[in-house]
Structure formats: C-alpha cells, structure tokens
Amino acid sequence: MDSRNGGGPVTTIGKRQSDLKKSFKLAVRSLLTTCPAQEFSKAFPKFSSVEQEHLHQLFIQIITSLHGNIEDEFESLCNETQVGDALDTVEQLVEEQSLDPLSSERTNVMDAVHNFSAAKKAEIHYLRGLLERAEEHNRLIQARVDLLRNKTQEVPDIKDVIGKVVERWNFKLQGNTKCGALNGLQLVWLAKCTSDCSD
Fold first, then answer.
1. CA-to-CA distance for 42 and 47, rounded, in angstroms?
2. How many CA atoms lie within 13 A of 60 on its CB side?
3. Beta strands in 6-115 (DSSP E)
4. 144-198 pLDDT, tens per residue?
5. pTM of the entire predicted model
6. Among 12, 149, 160, 162, whose CB has the most other CB atoms within 10 angstroms?
C-alpha cells in the first residue's frame, strides 16, 4: 500500500507482509546456523587449531553471505510477483470485514432474501393466474345466469301478451257477431304463436 507524503511515494509494509518476511528469515537462519568452534573443530580433527579457526571463520562468513543472498533473492522474488501488494490487499479486506460484523453474514442473508423474494414472486404469479381463471369462470357463469334470467322474463311477457290478445279477441267475438268467420283463423294463429313461443 503506497501513501503519499510530500512529493514522493513512501512504501509502508503491512503486518502480513512483515510477518511473511520475518518468518522466512527465521526459517533460513534455523536451517543455516553456525556451530560453536569446539563442535566445528571436532569435524576437522586432522587440521591444526589455527587452520580450524580459519575454517570456522570462513564457515561463518559463508553462512552470513548465504543468509544475505537468500534474503535478497526472496525480497526480489516478492517484488516481482507483487506478493506484498496482494498481502496488503488481503489485510485491507480483513480489516474492512472486521469493522463490519455483519459482513460475513450479509452474503447468506442476501441470498436468503433473494430466494425468499423469488419464491414469493412465483407464488404471486401462480395466485394471479388462479384469480384470473376464477374471474373468467365467474364471468361465464354470470353471463349464463343473465341469459337464463332474460329468457325466463321473456316467457312470462309472451304469455301475458298472448293472454291479452286472447282476451281482446274473445271480447270482440262476443261483441261482434260478424267476426265469427275469423274466429277459427285467429285461434289457429294463436295456437301457432303459443307453440313457437314455448319452443
């Protein structure tokens, strides 16, 4: 993570990056340790004590140089692969999540909310379909009821009309003897109308 201070960038090492470097140095030092002069002398018993001391000094210089070279190589490799930046990003994300105690649960909660919402939408869609079918069924039944109601109202109206016509004809027949010749034709016509209406 780079922070600007004045004119130039100042690189600050994050805790994870620092821990990685410390751990590597400890591992290298534990693998490449110097041994005491007495132990070193036992490894070279045929050499004189002066030669053993020179060898021991040379061994210490080699180990120290190896430590430096390995640490430099590790540092160079970390810079090339940008391990430090990756660790700093991880550290920043961990800090953000630790500041927000619900962040770990938010994904699960949001998934549950999304699933619940999708299920409710599907249920609403299904119920709307049922409601539309029920409304259409009710409209058909209402239309049928209205049709039957109109037919039943028409039948008494026709019967009333026929009754009134019959009453008039009977009245005319009783009052006017000249209409007696038409009496049979009128009755035939009335019978035909009555049978047509009843059908």
1. 10
2. 9
3. 8-11
4. 888 887 776 666 566 677 777 777 666 655 555 444 444 556 666 666 665 555 5
5. 0.37
6. 162
